[in-house]
Design a protein that fits this description.
The structure is a single chain. The protein has two domains: 33-179, 3-Layer(aba) Sandwich (Rossmann fold); 203-431, Rossmann fold, CATH 3.40.50.720. By secondary structure, it is of the alpha/beta class. The strands form two sheets. A seven-stranded parallel β-sheet has the order 9-8-7-10-11-12-13, sandwiched between helices. The chain is built from 15 helices and 13 strands. Helix 7 (212-223) links the parallel strand 7 and strand 8 (227-232). The structure holds nicotinamide-adenine-dinucleotide. Nicotinamide-adenine-dinucleotide (NAD) binds at residues 207-208, 210-214, 232-233, 236, 255-257, 279-282, 302, 329, 331, 375, 377-378, 380-383.
């Protein structure tokens, strides 16, 4: 499972050799830890066009130091006021002189405005920011990430900016994230949020949490204060109980495909549920010509049908509380497609459809947001089983030239689950190091 190549390029002789051979140069990513909770260095706030955003107080709360320290850890370019092609020159003028100085594992965050359907010049200029962001992400290197946030209200985007401007988003790059205007009163959060344990008092159910990405998600939500319910199939009892015990949570042994899964969850949680994390998933790869019906059916059942069924049940019976969060798990295979995965690709694309359609209604009717994470190549038992050559290609075919870790998906989930993320709804956020597939 270990990425030996990444270890090799972390040594001086390895770096010399691989550079001479023209091979990829993955940088060791600086991830979140209790000892390193924030980016190391200052934040540079630049503007292109005339902006109406009140960003300074929000940026001051992101935990990144002010500009002027000798290291630039992050650059935020407010381009929300860019309304025509001429103003795009200011994007170049702002970033061209500073991009070289952004530290390794640093961040570039471009802020844009929603596309104006009544002004095609504004729409062209704002859409240009997406191509710009994706291109810069592909060339910037040294473990640095580049993302675009479309927003109208700085305060509503605070949790998103905090995430993107922290070590927690190490493997999220080349993304465009839309943040709506804050939706009060349904998402009013009168209780003050403890910044170190923002999920305290909340109950999270993570499906498929006995191992892999789900285990990391449960661990991260518990770190943030949530009481976790570790759900997995009865065959995974030993691991599910081990994880639950370690996190001070409870195990729920249940096959999500069983018809009464929703009712069983509701029974287990008489006080309701705040965070429903659909992570359980399986692969049964074969090319379509060789794929028996049972492989198709089982993948669609676990990855999509059971997600739809239990979500419907838990929304309908009120188990999922107001202010709640649903985070489902898609995959880049559902966006780009993958040979041998017609069943899996279909099931994960189905998750994207579910999120887009349900998100606005779930917020209006239940006060619950619905988003998805779409992992790229993540180092787990699932990907360790992939044949060596394909595995190596999967690891390198992204802007960061390495696989992600379960913790990267977990941190993204924790941001979406945050009480202050109520304005993030209907998003599918890829955690893929800007994979070249479907980019
Ligand atoms: P994994 O196989 O390591 O873990 C999946 C867990 O889900 C297992 O514990 C399994 O027992 C459980 N599970 C399977 N069917 C279930 C069911 N019917 N009911 C309850 N639990 C069930 O997988 P992973 O790599 O940790 O992947 C987690 C999720 O992320 C999956 O949805 C997967 O499709 C998705 N994903 C993973 C990657 C990757 O690179 N690892 C990439 C894209 C998407």
């Amino acid at each position: 499972m270990a990425d030996r190549y990444l270890r090799l390029t972390g040594t001086a002789p390895g770096r010399f050799l691989t550079r001479r051979l023209g091979l990829p140069q993955p940088a060791a990513l600086a991830r979140w830890s209790a000892e390193r909770p924030a980016l190391d260095g200052g934040l540079l706030h630049l503007t292109a066009g005339r902006s109406a955003l009140d960003l300074a107080p929000v940026l001051a709360r992101t935990g990144t130091g002010p500009a002027g320290s000798d290291r630039t850890a992050a650059v935020v370019l407010d381009a929300t006021g860019v309304r025509d092609v001429e103003a795009l020159a200011e994007v170049h003028a702002a970033l061209h002189p500073v991009v070289r100085s952004v530290a390794a594992s640093g961040r570039v965050v471009v802020l844009g405005a929603p596309l104006d359907p009544a002004d095609h010049h504004q729409a062209a200029a704002q859409q240009a920011l997406e191509g710009f962001t994706r291109s810069l992400g592909k060339e910037i290197g040294r473990g640095r990430t580049v993302n675009l946030v479309r927003l109208t209200d700085a305060a509503a985007a605070e949790s998103t900016l905090r995430f993107l401007l922290s070590p927690k988003s190490a493997y999220v790059s080349g993304q465009m994230i839309e943040v709506g205007a804050d939706r009060e009163p349904p998402l009013a959060e009168p209780a003050p949020v403890d910044p170190d344990r923002p999920l305290s008092g909340r109950t999270a159910l993570v499906t498929g949490a006995a191992r892999g990405i789900g285990e990391a998600v449960a661990e991260t939500l518990a770190r943030d204060g949530a009481r976790v319910v570790v759900l997995d199939v009865p065959q995974a009892e030993h691991d599910a109980r081990r994880v639950a015990e370690r996190l001070g949570g409870t195990a729920l042994l249940l096959d999500m495909t069983s018809a009464d899964a929703g009712a069983r969850i509701a029974e287990e949680l008489p006080d309701g549920l705040d965070l429903l994390i659909h992570n359980a998933g399986i692969t049964r790869d074969r090319r379509l010509v060789n794929m028996p019906a049972e492989r198709w059916i089982s993948v669609l059942e676990v990855n999509l049908a059971s997600v739809l069924r239990t979500t419907d049940a838990l929304l309908k019976d009120g188990t999922l509380k107001r202010g709640g969060r649903i985070v489902a798990t898609a995959s880049i295979a559902g966006i780009a497609g993958n040979a041998g995965q017609t069943n899996y690709g279909a099931s994960k694309a189905g998750i994207v459809g579910l999120v887009r359609s349900l998100a606005p209604r779930a917020l209006d009717e239940h006060g619950v947001t619905v988003n998805a994470v779409a992992p790229g190549f993540i180092e787990t038992k699932m990907t360790a089983a992939v044949p060596l050559f394909i595995r190596e290609a999967g690891r390198r075919m992204n802007s960061l030239a390495q696989g992600g870790l379960p913790a990267d998906v977990a941190e993204t989930t924790a941001w979406l689950a945050h009480p202050a993320s109520g304005a993030v709804n209907g998003q599918v956020v890829r955690v893929c190091g800007q994979s070249l597939l479907g980019a």
